[in-house]
Amino acid sequence: MQILKTIVDHGPMPVVEFHGQGGEEIQVRLNARSAADDDETLIEVAKVMMLHAAAFDQPVESSGKLGTTKQKPRWEGPPENRPSGYLPANDDPDRDRDAAGETLTNPDKRKLSDALTTKNKKP
C-alpha cells in the first residue's frame, strides 16, 4: 500500500491514520501519551507497532475451518522457503511425486532452458 496521507488525532487515546490508494486505511491506536508527543513522534511509534504486527507469526495450528477463507494454504515447496502463514505440506515433497511426476530432489531438469517446462512438455 502506498501511503498518500497521514493524520494524527491527539485525543485521550491518540490515533494515527495512514490513508492509501483506493481508500485503504490503517488506524493505529496508541496508549494514552503525554501532550508533549508531537505528530512526528506519534507517527514513528505507530510505524514501529505496524512493523511488529507484520512480523508477528501466528502458530501454524491456528488454521481456520476447511473450505473457508480462514483456512491457511499448504506450502508444497522446500520447507526452508515456506512463507509465514502457510501450513507445512501433507506429503514429503523431497520423496513424494507431484502431479507432473517429479520430486524436489529429482525435478527432471537437464539444462537451463528446462526451468519452466513440465514433464513430457517441451518449450
Description:
With 123 residues, the chain is of the alpha+beta class. It has one helix spanning 39-55, and strands at 3-9, 15-20, 25-29. Strands 1-2-3 form a 3-stranded antiparallel beta sheet, covered by helices on one side. A hairpin with a 5-residue loop joins β1 (3-9) and β2.
Question: What is the compact description of this entry?
Answer:
By secondary structure, this protein is an alpha+beta fold.
Give the arrangement of secondary structure elements:
Layout: E1 3-9, E2 15-20, E3 25-29, H1 39-55
Name some characteristics of this structure:
123 residues; three-stranded antiparallel β-sheet
Strand count:
3
Stretches where pLDDT is under 50 for at least 5 consecutive residues are none
Mean pLDDT: 76
Note the run of SSEs as H and E: EEEH
- What profile does the largest beta sheet have? 3 strands, antiparallel
What is the 3D shape?
Answer: elongated
Gyration radius, to the nearest Å?
23 Å
Strand content: 5-15%
What is the helical fraction, as a range of percent?
10-25%
Query: Given the structure, what is the number of helices?
Result: 1
Secondary structure category: alpha+beta
Major sheet: arrangement of strands: 1-2-3
Q: Please report the distance between the alpha carbons of the first and last residues.
A: 36 Å
